[in-house]
Amino acid sequence: MVVNNRKSLAQNFLTRASLAASLLHNSSISSEDIVYEMGPGTGMLTRELCKKAKRVIAIEKDSNLFIKLEKKFALNDNIILYNADFLKFNIKESRYKVFANIPFNMTSAVIRKIVYAPNPPVEAYIILQKEAAEKFIGAPKTTQFSVLAQPWFRLKIIRSFKKTDFSPTPDVDVVMLHIEKRIPALVSPIDMSIYKRFIKCGFGARRRNLKSNCKNIFSHKQWQRLSRDLAFSMQAKPSELHFGQWLGLFGFFKKNIYSINKQW
Q1: What are the residue boundaries of the structural domains of the chain, listed by start?
Q2: Other C-beta atoms lying within 10 Å of the C-beta of residue 47
Q3: Distance between CA 51 and CA 78 in Å, rounded?
């Protein structure tokens, strides 16, 4: 069934098949993998995925592109095409990987769907705007999203592109973000809810320092100890602590505060 979109989705497509082949060659995707491709577009990456993966499930929202993809891959027996919105798509596989070259204005929603999914992928490769990727990985300054995601995922920029690698040529710098599920996770699943509450509280008022945001959690004496042991300034803002320091804060909170007062 073809979805009738109100307008075509703005997307930057790869210009060279050799580049698509290089991206897949340098990935971990193998003949054992089920891969979900978001935004296959003209099918350049799709063709290379079909060569390497056990099965490709390609999800294209644009109706016109979907019809062309159906014709292009009519003889391929290891691909399933859907004319659908990935953000509303129900992924059933327990183990899968993701490859995506999507419109940049959808990046945030797609990344959140990936990392917050009940059954997240073991790996994801996302082509996106460099500025957005830096916010997701928490560089050069730590972000709330990066601290929320990193106990369960490793996030790393693994490739930079030339603007001429795409058509139409983007106005921004473009990179590939690699997301890998941590096994085991750094925070137990049973602590996920309290961890997220703690981090959101710490980032509560971004212009205020972290001590002010956490004044109802830590005493002044505890804060002195934490800033000394974890090597950060007493007046540090949330974005000035790296992930390891945030993890240390949560560990102290869980052991010395939450274990005593479960009502927090």
Answers
A1: 13-181, 189-258
A2: 19
A3: 9
